Amino acid sequence: MTHIIHPTALFRISVLGPLVSRDNLEHGELKKIIYELTARTYKIPNSNHVYLSSKTIERWYYQWHKHGINGLMPRIRKDKGNSKLPEDIQQMLLELKKDNPARSLNTLIRLAEKQGAVKQGGLVRSSVYRLLKHHNLSKRSASGTEVIERRAFEALFAGDIWYGDVMHGPCIQTPQGKQKTYLVSIMDDASRLICHTAFCLNETALSIEFVLKQALLKRGLPKRFVIDNGSAYRANTLQSICARLNIRLIYCRPYEPEGKGKLERFHRTFREQFLTEIDIQDFNSLDELNARLWVWVEKIYHQTIHSALQETPISRFQRDLIKVKPLGNLAANLDEYFYYRVERFIRKDGTLNYNGSLYEVSFDYVGQHIYLVIDPHEEQPKWIESLEYERLGHVHLLDKHANNNRKRKRPAVLNNKQKSKTSLVEIAYKQAADILNLTKKVK
After folding, report:
1. Calpha distance 125→105 (Å, rounded)
2. Are 191 and 260 in the same domain?
3. Does the structure show a pLDDT above 90 at 63?
4. DSSP string, 48-84
5. Same structural domain for residues 194 and 272?
6. pLDDT higher than threshold 80 for residue 97
7. How many domains does the chain have?
8. 184 within 8 A of 208, measured Cβ to Cβ
């Protein structure tokens, strides 16, 4: 089973991007980068804050440096769910909340103080909140003026750095009507080789992940993957995929396309040599357009000498094949890294709902919350997992007609030896019989 990365760990490693993407830091550079990171705003999970302190970022960095992605996992409190408030105070707060669920934490604390149960200031909001949560009652780009220093660079070996980006493509006629296309491409920095590219009908995370999977199958594992800062690239699914495959995901700064200058240059070449040479009216499907695209990439672009390399992209990539990390055993289960997980509740009849259809699982998991593992491209459920990501069993489409003849599991019937000897009915019957016998004897 593939290792699942906690969303909090994914957020922390995305914050550390400029640090974890560097193999070595010069003296004083760590504090400088951390200072720059503290000036940014973040969408922090489960928090209303938008800034991070330097101590927090530095602590995360050393945890990552020592333990990798596992060091960024959130720690579970040993006393989670346990309240240290006195039992009578707990009971009173719960009753006050149940009496009026709209009451806020401050109102509950004031009521407890007014009733003399606690002294003023004796209750802490966080303690009351944890108590209510345990009982399920807690419901209620700026542009810099300074010139940015930019320097030309190039990865030492193929596979060191990959770039990913989306270019707006032409509109084509499809069976569903005229639709806009998007070119999703992934390029290797050292060789300028296109690891994979494809026209898609959207620029969502699903399309980007599809192209990434094909690139991995064709060109092995990169060390770093540099991508844009858009919402599709910020998807937790993409972050999780890269984290589990030990690929360092690096986000370019907003409104700075120069960070992916080589891929931007490819887009220019693509427009000049591909889009100008085809008649878009000749295509009636995405498959037809992609077929021409892949032939152009493999037979023309990869076979043409690149001016900056003085050799072809394919020959430059092949020189470093010994340096490229192969998928190896990961190839057999690569699809599992790209599966999605959605939380579902198992109903009393052993079914769950997904995408408007009912699916059936083992009756052992009735009443439980589980993860439904889905192939996002086929939108097809594969299996179910516990909330700790342990595989539980198969899932299949509900067939009511088949269940009509299906033998049900029933609890074993107690035999005579197992029957209770303290039945109230039997005791009352025996007492009545004794009284009746006694009356007969008196007569």
Report:
1. 6
2. yes
3. no
4. S-----HHHHHHHHHHHHHHGGGGGSPPPPTTTT---
5. yes
6. yes
7. 4
8. yes
